[in-house]
Amino acid sequence: MTNAGDRTSIDPSPTAPKTRERRLAEVFVLLADTLVADFDVVDVLDQLVQACVDPLGSTAAGLLLDDQRGHLTVMASSADSSRLVELFQVQNQQGPCLDCYRTGQPVTVPDLTAATDRWPLFAPVAIEHGFQSVHALPLRLRDDTIGALNLFHDASTPLDDDDLRIAQALADTATIGILQQRALNASSVLSEQLQTALNSRIAIEQAKGVLAAAGNIGMDRAFELLRRHARNNNLRISDLARQVATRSLDIDVVLGRDS
Amino acid sequence: MFLGPLAVATGGEGHDDDMETSADGSDPSGFGQPAMSSAVSGDGSPLAICRLAVQALDVTGAGISVITEAGHRGSVCATDDVAAVIEEMQFSLGEGPCVDAFHHGPMLIGDLSDAAQVAASRWPQFTREAAAAGARALFALPLEIGAIRVGALDLYRDRPGVLTAGQLSVALTFADAAAGALLDDQFAEAEMPSDVAVPGSTVYAEVHQATGMISVQLDVGLDDAFVRLRARAFAAERPVHELARDVVARRLRFDDEDRDDR
After folding, report:
1. Mean pLDDT per 10-residue run, chain B (262 residues)?
2. What whole-number distance in Å separates Cα of residue B89 and Cα of residue B69?
3. CB distance from B252 to chain A under 8 Å?
4. Interface residue B37 vs chain A (CB under 8 A)
5. Do A68 and B146 touch (CB under 8 A)?
6. What is the pLDDT of residue B31?
7. In this predicted structure, what is the pLDDT of residue A183?
């Protein structure tokens, strides 16, 4: 690989930015890999929020999608804290992610303590959950906004323009993921695709409940087990979730217990 | 405070006298989905939901079928003869959009007389016969709540034309209501208010998590667990998602007592 060799020699110091670039490249490779195969939208979005946190220096990330019934719904979250904060926004109809979704424009909140006037309900709750700054990037398709990618930071260190471009590219990748699956099935439209993804998300929550009750574990742990079993067995997480939720497979196997 | 009760179509228990209906469609109960409230007020039966869907969506007719994983199927209701034919034909032919919607998600066909669309569809014989019966556009939506799948809602038009994004959004909300109505047909013994019947709360992950937990606690199907959760919330006059939160936090457990307690 002469190219790689050249690059190494041109840039002698393996400094932080380069490491970050590499990690970002890995995120895009991961997503590209996922998108070429017969993939699961829920899985892609989940991987996206997990993978974008680290290279962007974020504390947590989350993704909201239009639920086709006039609401936003939390599709993926890298941490419990961001999930709670996003749910709070959805339930109270207030916050930067909501504004981003409504306007189709990115919303940057460098310092949440200075944003209590704008979002009197949201800002204190976000701070309470350990966040100091938030960025919301729209998932945009021509004139339609179908959701938002949200990046939460535990310090008031806003992303710079380069970071924001990268973050928007990640949001666009998510949009492409949702749309590309549409292309695989010529008869369907975006709304159908969203509907299927949303319903998969519900099946995952049901499966988490089944595992949590059967294994006496928390919801986060239940999701981890679900995800791990899907990856290890090359299953779509949605398909596995349906089997677990309806208990049409041996739950003990997913729980890692011998039956 | 509740909207019209969800009359069970197969019922006969006759709880009608003590039911309270509110005509204004207001939804102070905190179950969300204000847009849906007015739509499902009325008796909330599958047929009533179909009739409302016809009015709201600019379609000619609508019908609902029950489908199970085991393949047991049947037409529940239809608003007119063509809709009834569409439902029945899919079962006699063993093919059609409602069966496919059940397995694969929404099926939207804007023009049944378009040769290309017919060729691309997986149901050539059904498509020809539906067109002969008088349908020109057909939209089939699965009735599902996550892994709970109960059937499909078919909407047809006597002229070609796709559903707009807004109409599809409303149609999906009707599908949610119909899914709740069918589940109550199958499992609920007491009447439930139609706003409880609307799952509507994809916002509340806890509702679905609690459904999974209850299905393990009581060793019942997800569908049954979901109805019990809502029935108990209704009996306690609490929003479903609040009760669900207690289940998830393990402050509330459904156990053997609940087997007879619904």
Report:
1. 30 34 35 36 78 92 88 85 92 84 84 74 83 92 91 94 83 87 74 49 79 96 91 87 93 74 44
2. 19
3. no
4. no
5. no
6. 33
7. 45
Residue with tokens 């599709």: A75
CA–CA gap between residue B244 and residue B253 (Å, rounded): 10
| ipTM score assigned to the predicted complex | 0.73
Chain B residues with CB under 8 Å of A212 CB are 209, 212-213, 248
Sheet of strand B73-78: strand arrangement: B73-78, B61-67, B148-157, B137-145, B107-109
* Residue A42, helix vs strand vs coil: helix
Cβ neighbours of residue A72 closer than 8 Å, sequence gap 6 or more: A64, A65, A66, A90, A97, A98, A101, A147, A148, B203
What is the distance in angstroms between the Cα of A246 and the nearest Cα belonging to chain B? 7
In angstroms, what CA-CA distances link B38 with A101, B23, B44, B52?
Answer: 26, 8, 11, 10
Would you state the pLDDT for residue A108? 93
Residues with Cβ < 8 Å from A120, sequence gap 6 or more? none
Cβ-based contacts of A67 with chain B (< 8 Å): 202-203
* Cβ–Cβ contact A71 with B under 8 A: yes
SS (H, E, C) B149-171: EEEEEEEEECCCCCCCHHHHHHH
Nearest to B172 among A68, A213, A246 (CB): A68
Size of interface A-B (CB pairs under 8 A): 130
3-state helix, strand, coil in chain A (%, to 5): 60, 15, 30
Minimal C-alpha gap between B146 and chain A (Å): 4
3-state DSSP assignment of residue B194: helix
By C-alpha distance, the chain A residue nearest B120 is A187
CB B82 within 8 A of CB B63: no
Q: Residues of A with CB below 8 A from B222's CB?
A: 206, 245-246
Name the band, by pLDDT with cuts 50, 70 and 90, for residue A159. Answer: confident
Among A192, A196, A206, select the one facing B147 at the smallest CB separation.
A206
* A89-141 tens-digit pLDDT: 888 889 999 999 999 999 999 999 999 999 999 999 999 999 999 999 999 87
Q: List the single residue in B172, B212, B213 with the smallest CB-CB distance to A195.
A: B172
DSSP-derived secondary structure for A175-215:
HHHHHHHHHHSTT--HHHHHHHHHHHHHHHHHHHHHHHHHH
- Report the alpha-carbon distance of residue B6 to residue A61 in Å, rounded: 40
Per-residue pLDDT of A36-80, as tens digits, reads 666 777 888 888 898 888 888 899 999 998 887 777 888 888 888
Report residue A9 as tokens: 């020699």
